[in-house]
Inverse folding.
């Protein structure tokens, strides 16, 4: 029988260690809340959609580039939260837009197909 070593999880010491431990279990929740705040701010102030999308894409690219260069720690965790929020802000509207466009294309093709069938079939 194989025995596994005993692992003792020591509580972090220092402000940075405690902050990182607090973020560890809440990264996804903080990311979603940050993305939601951005969407609500967009809905309230109604800036240019193209400008906001470009800005969110730029922040996403910069956050990913910065996260790759940073060592593991609190700074990298915060940058990854920002990158995740920007990915949600940019990705969800694109996915919805593509699904709407795909639905419209399928609908138009279905209508055209029904019209072609209607004119080719003689009763």
């Amino acid at each position: 029988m194989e025995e596994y070593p005993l692992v003792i999880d020591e509580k972090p010491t220092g402000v940075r260690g405690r902050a990182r431990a607090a973020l560890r279990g809440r990264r996804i929740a903080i990311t979603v809340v940050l993305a939601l705040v951005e969407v609500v701010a967009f809905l309230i102030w109604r800036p240019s959609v193209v400008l906001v999308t470009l800005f969110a894409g730029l922040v996403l690219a910069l956050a990913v580039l910065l996260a790759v260069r940073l060592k593991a720690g609190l700074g990298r965790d915060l940058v990854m939260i920002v990158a995740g929020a920007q990915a949600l802000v940019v990705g969800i509207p694109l996915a919805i837009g593509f699904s709407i466009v795909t639905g419209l294309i399928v609908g138009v093709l279905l209508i055209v197909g029904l019209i072609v069938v209607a004119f080719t079939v003689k009763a």
